[in-house]
Amino acid sequence: MSSDDIRETFLRFFTARQHLRIAAASVVPVGDPTLLYVNAGMAPLKPYFTGEAIPPAPDLCNIQPCVRTIDIEDVGDRHHLTFFEMLGSWSVGHYGRERAVELAWDLLTSGFGFAPGQLYVTVYAGDSRRGVPPDEVSAAAWERTGVPRDHIVWLGEDNFWTAGETGPCGPCTEVFFDTGPGNGPAYQPGGEFDTAGRYIEIWNAGVFIEYQRRASGELEPLRFASVDTGSGLERMAMVLQGRESVYETDVFAPVTAAARAVLGSAAAERDVRVVADHVRSAAFILGEGVTPSNEGRGYIPRRLLRTAIAHAVRASGSPSGLREVASAAIGVLGPHYPALAAQHGTVLALLDAEQRDFGAVVRRGLDQLAALGTGPGGQVSAQDAFTLHATHGLPVDLIRDFAAGRGGSVDEAGFARLQAEHRERSRATGGRGDERDSGPGPDGPAPAALRTVAASGPPTEFLGYGQISATGRLLALAGLDGQPVTGLAAGERGLVCADRTPFYAEGGGQVGDTGELTTPGGSAAVLDTQSAAGRHVHLVEVVRGELRPGEAAELTVDAGRRRATARNHSATHLLHAALRQVLGPATRQAGSLVAPGRLRFDFTAPRPPSRAELGQAERLVNAEVLANADRRTDVRPYADAVGSGAIAFFGDSYGDQVRVVSFGGFSAELCGGTHVTRTAEIGLFRIVSEGSIGAGVRRIEALTGDAAVGWTLDRDRLLADAAARLRVPPEQLPDRVSALAARGPRRRPAPSGPLAGPGDVAVSGSGTRYVVATSPDGDLPGLPAAARRLSGELDALAIVLLPGAGNGGLRVGVAVPPGLAVALDARRELDRVLAVTGGRGGGSAVFAQGGGLELTDPGEVTSRITDAYSKT
Length: 872
Fold this sequence. Notes:
There is one protein chain. The protein is an alpha+beta fold. The chain has six domains: 3-248, BirA Bifunctional Protein, domain 2 (2-Layer Sandwich), CATH 3.30.930.10; 252-371; 373-431, no CATH class; 441-557, CATH 2.40.30.130; 563-711, 2-Layer Sandwich (Threonyl-tRNA Synthetase, Chain A, domain 2), CATH 3.30.980.10; 762-871, Diaminopimelate Epimerase, Chain A, domain 1 (Roll). It contains 24 helices and 33 strands. It starts with a helix and ends with a helix. 43% of the residues are buried.
């Protein structure tokens, strides 16, 4: 069977048995802070199993892309992968163990044609400490289908499935394929069951979701039991195609061939497999709009790519060529995931950047590893391993493989201790969260409280697309902790759910509506609107009387705020379309904020836009505003909408039917937000700032309507004032400024203190004033004060180099003057410098410093920094 045949056979089998086929979700989870990535087919469906949301049908099926790193050390063997496709079926509170076993056996033997004697099954042996008994029901069901008793294996922890530290869980029964005596001895009842060699798991035929695992580890019974099944497409293809590993199947062979061509015919098979797996996985993640970074979700693709680069350097001496591997992966996956195919150029650009930035670093790291001279019986020390990993980015498994290849080892325990200490220090420094323009603030509800108050009752009927005022009935009231209350009195804040509402709940980048709620017994200000489990949750503050459950209520949205938000949301769609016209179709939204006062648009693009290109995009948007195009809203099948050119976004979860918002022939996007009726309602669109916020991601801040008009008039006054000070008409101001600039910068007196010979103040490609200076004596304790003094005296971003500081290395300090503190962040500017020089660092928004630079020649460092800043 080809992989396409396997897909079709699986889906046809379950849909013929009344399972509704649902669309796959993004691998970027929505509303689930417990996961970085969707790691199993059931992960996006967890609210169905806990009763927080109602499924579209009790029995479901689909093919879900997944990313799982828990087994990353095993990648390179016959069947472990980082990215894989999961064939899944579910029954939510409907059928149980017996039916799940019957369906599994029918599909495997009749649908896929397995010989019964080739299959073994495992069942849960029980755990008295957890209070979970042995799964006798599944074992009996397997026997009834004809599975011999000696092919039923009782296992412990391996057969109790959890989606994470918390969440739905339960015992499971799995099916294994016997790959034959060439891969190990046959299983003997009561003996070891070899799941790594001879017996390959091809289907988790039933996770019986009966419990909710709490953070304490305690299991709490769910209100109803469900069934979750999953089969890895790649493993199933390996078995049905008679291959020795997943890397030889039709779904993987082109990627493996590309990796082998890049690494060379002499490369070790494990190197080829790791490169094929990691580049394929990273390509899919990058195609979802995630960009590589040093923390959070972006750390996973960076880790994968850097591991692949390290293996490529070790095998072939060069980090280049991985784009061919990524192209092969996209070629195989693209027909099934059109959004990935559309992001081909963006994926390759991000991969190229990682190769460029990391290739030289890993080569030096491998040289240092070789210099350690580990021989037979020798050991790479914990400190050496940690330095190679943390400073040079060498993957731990590569260090381990290198040492083992010479008969040595790594101090694993010591390395783990140093890594744990590093994590604790990093955690103690904290992090910066993104700002919000509105919302409940410090007195608002936690996400858990929202889920609690929304856990029961029907989904809310949303009326806000067509009206801003409606009558509804209060179904539930709760305190800010989510616990039910019988009433909310004047002065109290709480959470309210109604059966119907015109209030838009925050989502898709758009902030939640505010307004007022009135009942016969009282009235309240609606401070924010959020959603959970399909219900709109209103954060209210009672201003008069008392609110009680069951009362009729008049719900009225703040009309002016809604109109301003709609202007900014529609302008965001037009801006996205304009940027794709100007910068190319690889440009893609990577996040947004749509608020009444402004819009923020994050995007990835093949290159930073020039000022002229930003102006062109701004003109395109305003041309659409003047054209007064109608907004059109259609509800269409997802495949039809995307196939016709409508844009879908990373991290968003779509059903089979989607809402498409379009403006003339200029813009069409999948969107659930509120919008203007005609584009002229936007009034005016102005871009107020643009810049980098991380590797490969840029941000535009913009205004519409009255705010855009006010900003434009203010800028006009500033222009007139500047012209008056230079005694020229405004239209001659550019020539006057050019004439002044041609005289050359005026030298200021050299700053006092340890700094000497700072260069002239320069202007970066994005308009930032900056200066690079060197301290001749390497006065490390005085670095912060000296850098701040220099930045203040020159009113410019100061980048200060200290040769000889810190054990003969080179340190760098970055300071932001008060005049630029709004536009610049020293930590972000330090990251830009370290991207050129290597090293690590941190600090505050006004001063940051780093060390361990790969380059130690101040002249070369200055040259590279200047070159980088001249471009962006």
